[in-house]
Protein: Arsenate reductase family protein
Amino acid sequence: MEIWINPACSKCRSAITRLDAVGAEYTVRRYLEDVPSEDEIRAVLDRLGLEPWDITRTGEAVAEELGLAGWPREAEARGRWIAALSAHPKLIQRPIITADDGSAVVARSEEAVSEALSRGQG
Structure:
């Protein structure tokens, strides 16, 4: 199990606290420092069953600078969104937990963290 976090994020700290409370084994990835490649983002999106615009933090200043609000949300634009997420990892919604069973969740709630835990750790 791996969790992508920004240590400054309260939702990330809450998820870590929950994982620790149940003794879960996991690896922390500080994705702002260890930036995911476009291929890694594609793989996580597949595991999440989501599109890149679904995990984009559109309220970030860089989103406004890039004009993301006007970008098309369709298959043909998927690569452009993924490239933006890799180039500007601050845009990636957090925390993301990738479970050993091949699934993943955006763990912004205690319920989502519990869902990741229920999927097993391998």
Remarks:
- The longest helix spans residues 10-21.
- The first strand starts at residue 2 and ends at 5.
